[in-house]
Amino acid sequence: MQRYQTNVRNDTLYIETDGDRLEIGSLDDICELVGGETYSIEYGQRQRAMDWVDTDDDGEFTFDVREVLRDMSYDEEFVTNVRPVAIDETDENGYPLRTSVFADLMMRIWDSKGNLEG
Fold first, then answer.
1. Which residues are registered as beta bridge partners of 31?
2. In this structure, are residues 70 and 52 in contact, taking their beta carbons and an 8 Å threshold?
3. Rounded distance, CA 34 to CA 104, Å?
4. What is the SS3 assignment for 69?
5. Cα(49)–Cα(109) distance, rounded to whole angstroms?
6. Is 40 helix (H, G, I), strand (E, B) or coil?
């Protein structure tokens, strides 16, 4: 399965695709859209029992948004969903539309713990 890597230049996040870079938007904007520099995912009691889940006492796993985004890669379906969204149009809050859609998708992925099907 083809994976597309993240590239950050001058605080702007891009996804490296076949032959070009897809501009997503500034990391500052993405952090604002997801609620801050860190993001927390809450795990239930049963999920916390897994060895690979490292949560705090309240069952929350908190991570650095910028760090996680720099290390992410994306499948073709993700890129196909983001590519047609205009980067030069803005949402109701003044953020680039593609940046806003990207942030929303990332929160959905994180909140579902990577399982968008369920």
1. none
2. no
3. 7
4. helix
5. 21
6. strand
Instruction: Say how far apart CA 80 and CA 83 lie, in whole Å.
Output: 6
> The pTM is what?
0.86
- Three-point CA angle 29, 37, 85, nearest 5°: 30
Blockwise average pLDDT, block size 10, the chain, 118 residues = 93 93 98 96 62 61 92 93 96 97 95 61
Residue with structure tokens 């239930």? Answer: 44
Q: Let me know how long the chain is.
A: 118
Residue pair 38/65 in contact (Cβ under 8 Å)? The answer is: yes
Tokens for 3?
């994976």
Contact 65, 31 (CB under 8 A): yes
